[in-house]
């Protein structure tokens, strides 16, 4: 939208906006805008806290946060890989609309305004402390403290222990630490990220702030120092529900990923208990730093005026199927994420059954702070739901996700491209692999979750239907089964509707389209 057009819309009264098809601004008045704190974990699988039904108490602070606000059991990523999902959160757009479908294409992001544009326009101080992996650039925020999985922001001069820790992380090379990390928790990225966040919050003083605290964990490398290394002993971690045998019912992409992992880290699948133990320890390490950050908000009196959102960009195989990390198709273990909202004006409620998405974050926060939802935003505002107001339940009875770089899917008889994720770089190279490669991500695949059901369809006409309540690991495809015959047309219609609903309406030109208040299509 050009500036003159935007200024004109902002000057119109609500009745005129409604007549023009533009939803009126709702939420905070200019003098009472809340702070925004987005806490994101990278590759955190849903359902691994005691409050979400897991056997071990991995994240008591997050469970407490959820109990004081609203958590969603049916929250989903727009795509189970980092950059597309993160850009969706910031822009409210699905990957096929913002045009970033792989991690290497962040600069291609297409949108009108993102969260940080909206907040800066309203006078917010803005910041990133942690992993970016999006289109966001340093000049657009007041605080820029970036971290990756192997290194991060360092003060000048850099303390020797932090430099040594980062060298050790590179040596681990995205594998699983078989011994406790030989550096204290203060060298770990979550501690350093929260320290930077606390400094920023204090510097903001009385100005409203919008801060993205983005942990690189519990993403690989799977490592933790003591006491976290011993907190969930390997012999006590819950057994896997499915192992390597489950791959027999899956496509070529799954089995190829398994071979890629085994070639890179021979015997890794036999060490799954240690990997799971470290992963759970990483969750508790994150949780302790979340508690530290929330405690600082309380101590400074800013908690009462801050909206806190905790979520992940996508999930992790967590050694189910004999796999680590992520990398293929749209299984529940990769697409379902934790999402919890709490704080300013949010009404504590029991877990809501609504299907929600990372794309819903931007419109929700826009309504919370009284900002216009940007044109081209495809997500739906959760703000009425979070504040205990009426909302159409039919709007949230399904959700949509997608994956794939495009083109045709690779199969067992194909010659594979040179950049097919096999790692290497010469005989002396440290082994590694890229699970998000042109083989595992080949083709295009879309899915809808609705009720107990899930439909998946690909660009070459392949279909899958699962009852994810009875079959949570999606081992029995019911596409042609009599038991799914009644629900199949409804699922396909829902998928078609989502596909049309998320068709891009940018660029905005001479004519104004009718926009749905809150982004809700339900009548």
Description:
GO terms for molecular function: arylsulfatase activity; transferase activity. InterPro entries: Alkaline_phosphatase_core_sf (IPR017850), Sulfatase (IPR050738), Sulfatase_N (IPR000917). With 523 residues, the chain is α/β, with parallel strands linked by helices. It has one domain (3-21, 33-396): 3-Layer(aba) Sandwich (Alkaline Phosphatase, subunit A), CATH 3.40.720. Helices cover 28% and strands 14% of the residues. The strands form three sheets. Strands 2-9-7-1-6-4-5 form a seven-stranded mixed β-sheet, sandwiched between helices. Strands 11-12-13-14 form a four-stranded antiparallel β-sheet, covered by helices on one side. α8 (189-204) runs parallel beside α10. The protein is globular and about 60 Å long. Mean pLDDT is 92; it is low at 1-26 and 424-428.
Topology readout:
Elements: H1 3-11, H2 14-19, E1 35-41, H3 60-67, E2 70-71, E3 75-76, H4 82-91, H5 95-98, H6 115-121, E4 125-130, E5 143-146, H7 160-172, H8 189-204, E6 209-214, H9 252-264, H10 272-299, E7 306-312, H11 332-335, E8 336-337, E9 339-343, E10 356-357, H12 361-368, H13 383-386, E11 398-406, E12 443-450, E13 453-458, E14 463-467, H14 488-501
Parallel strand pairs: 1-6, 1-7, 3-10, 4-5, 4-6
Antiparallel strand pairs: 2-9, 3-8, 7-9, 11-12, 12-13, 13-14
Helix pairs in contact: 8-10
């Amino acid at each position: 939208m050009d500036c003159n057009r935007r200024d004109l819309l902002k000057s119109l009264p609500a009745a005129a906006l409604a007549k023009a098809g533009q939803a009126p601004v709702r939420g905070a008045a200019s003098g009472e805008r809340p702070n925004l704190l987005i806490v994101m974990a990278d590759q955190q699988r849903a359902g691994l806290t005691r409050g979400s039904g897991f056997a071990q108490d991995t994240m008591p602070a997050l469970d407490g946060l959820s109990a004081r606000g609203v958590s969603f059991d049916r929250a989903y990523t727009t795509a189970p890989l980092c950059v597309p999902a993160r850009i969706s959160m910031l822009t409210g757009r699905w990957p096929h609309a913002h045009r970033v479908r792989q991690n290497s294409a962040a600069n291609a992001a297409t949108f009108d305004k993102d969260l940080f544009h909206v907040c800066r326009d309203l006078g917010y101080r803005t910041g990133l402390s942690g992993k970016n992996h999006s289109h966001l650039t340093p000049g657009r925020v007041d605080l820029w403290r970036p971290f990756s999985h192997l290194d991060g922001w360092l003060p000048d001069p850099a303390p020797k222990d932090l430099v040594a820790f980062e060298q050790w992380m590179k040596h681990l090379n995205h594998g699983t630490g078989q011994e406790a990390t030989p550096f204290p928790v203060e060298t770990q990225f979550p501690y350093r990220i929260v320290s930077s966040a606390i400094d920023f919050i204090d510097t903001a003083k009385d100005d409203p702030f919008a801060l993205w605290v983005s942990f690189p964990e519990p993403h690989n490398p799977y490592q933790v120092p003591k006491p976290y290394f011993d907190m969930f002993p390997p012999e006590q971690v819950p057994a896997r529900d499915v192992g390597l045998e489950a791959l027999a019912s899956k496509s070529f992409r799954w089995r190829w990923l398994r071979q890629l992992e085994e070639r890179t880290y021979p015997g890794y699948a036999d060490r799954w208990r240690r990997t799971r133990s470290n992963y759970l320890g990483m969750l508790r390490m994150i949780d302790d730093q979340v508690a530290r950050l929330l405690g600082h908000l309380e101590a400074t009196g800013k908690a009462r005026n801050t909206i806190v959102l905790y979520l992940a960009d996508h999930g992790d195989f967590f050694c189910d199927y004999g796999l680590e990390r992520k990398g293929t198709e749209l299984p529940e273990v990769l697409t379902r994420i934790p999402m919890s909202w709490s704080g300013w004006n949010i009404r504590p409620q029991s877990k809501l059954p609504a299907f929600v998405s990372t794309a819903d974050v931007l419109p929700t926060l826009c309504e919370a702070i009284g900002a216009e939802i940007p044109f081209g935003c495809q997500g739906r505002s959760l703000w009425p739901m979070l504040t205990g107001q009426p909302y159409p339940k039919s709007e949230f009875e399904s959700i949509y996700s997608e994956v794939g770089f495009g083109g045709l899917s690779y199969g067992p008889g194909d010659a594979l491209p040179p950049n097919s994720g096999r790692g290497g770089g010469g005989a002396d190279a440290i082994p590694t692999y890229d699970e998000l490669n042109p083989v595992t991500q080949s083709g295009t695949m879309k899915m809808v979750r609705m009720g107990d059901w899930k439909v998946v369809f690909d660009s070459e006409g392949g279909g899958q239907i699962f009852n994810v309540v009875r079959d949570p690991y999606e081992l029995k495809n019911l596409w042609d089964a009599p038991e799914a015959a009644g629900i199949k047309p409804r699922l396909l219609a829902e998928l078609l509707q989502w596909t049309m609903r998320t068709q891009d309406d940018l660029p905005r030109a001479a004519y104004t389209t009718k926009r749905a208040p809150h982004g809700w299509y339900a009548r």
